[in-house]
Design a protein that fits this description.
Blueprint (H helix, E strand, L loop, with lengths): L4 E3 L3 E6 L2 E6 L3 E7 L2 E6 L4 E5 L2 H7 L5 E5 L2 E4 L3 E5 L4 E4 L4 E3 L5 H11 L40
Antiparallel strand pairs: 1-2, 2-3, 4-5, 4-8, 5-6, 7-8, 9-10, 10-11
């Protein structure tokens, strides 16, 4: 049975058998669409299958760290590991590989030039960007306080 998903300010709630599981955007590595379901893959190797359109998820995610590889895959570039030509393939953490459509190659290169130096995988404790001068630093915030020098302050 597919779960339902509800988006909040900086996290999403996915319905499960005994309630809801709250997950932060920074934990989301990729989304694979197989009509009418989206499979959400998270950094801790947890997967959820949600009955919704890919576009409805894209509309609710922050734009900066997410990139649509082709019509059925969206990746979080924070987990980007590499790119290969012929055929065009993007590799993310865990060795997952996704085909990059020809139409999106130039957009991908431009996005990586603009964002890669500033976006890195979020801190696993608070899900903020580890780079202090990052314009997207607050994007993945999990707690009220931000990491300073990769050391988390708890509330």
């Amino acid at each position: 049975m597919a779960q339902k998903i509800v988006f909040h300010d900086q996290k999403m709630e996915i319905s499960v058998k005994n309630g809801a599981d709250a997950r932060y955007y920074g934990e989301l590595m990729c989304i694979v669409y197989d009509a009418p379901f989206c499979k959400l893959h998270f950094a801790d190797n947890t997967d959820y299958t949600v009955e919704t359109s890919l576009q409805s998820i894209i509309d609710n995610l922050p734009e900066a760290p997410f990139f649509k590889c082709d019509r059925s895959v969206v990746i979080n570039i924070c987990y980007y590991k590499g790119y290969r030509l012929n055929p065009s393939v993007i590799v993310i953490d865990g060795g997952k590989e996704f085909k990059l459509s020809r139409r999106n190659v130039n957009d991908f290169i431009k996005k990586m030039k603009n964002n890669l130096p500033r976006i890195s995988p979020p801190c696993p404790k608070c899900y903020t960007c580890k780079i202090e001068e990052c314009e997207n630093r607050i994007l993945f915030v999990r707690r009220k306080t931000l990491c300073q020098n990769n050391k988390c302050n708890t509330e």
